[in-house]
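Tutorial handout. Part one gives the primary structure; part two gives the three-dimensional structure as tokens.
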Amino acid sequence: DCKDKALLLAGLLRDLGIEAYPAFVNTKLHRRLDDLLPSPFLFDHVITEVIDGGKTYWIDGTLSDQGGTLATIETPSDERALVVRSSTNALTPIVIHPHGNIRVEEVISTDKQRMTLEVTSTYSGHDADDIRSRLASDSLADIATKHLNRYAVDHPRIEALGQPSITDDRLRNVVVLRERYTIHDLWRNGSWTYYPRAVEQHLTRPETLVRSMPLAIEYPLDVTERLVIR
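Part two.
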């Protein structure tokens, strides 16, 4: 439970001589808490404020797959916190420095025998945390099947050349996924249409187009997809 983990983390850090306090946040309202009257029912999560060397860090003890150091660990994007300490008399702003991004490079190469597709996906910051969490719950074979079917939408005659490979630099918080495929009959009828699927999967067309409510999208989000044809 977030309350238990935040309190336990604060207690462990205090035993190490580091100033730390549990802090209530709202994962949906964020800075809109500023516009509301005080209430004990405005919070849905608890994180930990850590003060070390005069600098403030915010740690979510429920995120077990995070990478990075204290200086580079991803800051929760909650924006406002009610810190549990006697001197608190207002909400504390959480300064967010997002480090996450996704970089996908696809290289299509051809010779007389076959055409190959090599995909290198580099995840950093919170996106590395997300893919690491997926790898903790899904097998590499499951992820390989999902990605193969994603590419098969554009290349029906695609085959995987072995299992994907993964490298995880936990200290820098960078995860790299490498995949190789062979493609048959890419240029059907002398033409081929390219779709940036890595970008497209984050831009799902909403079912309700005439809207009365705002549309929620992922934030922060930084995705770059690059195609090289040789």
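Part three, for discussion. The two ends are 52 Å apart (CA to CA). The first strand starts at residue 19 and ends at 25.
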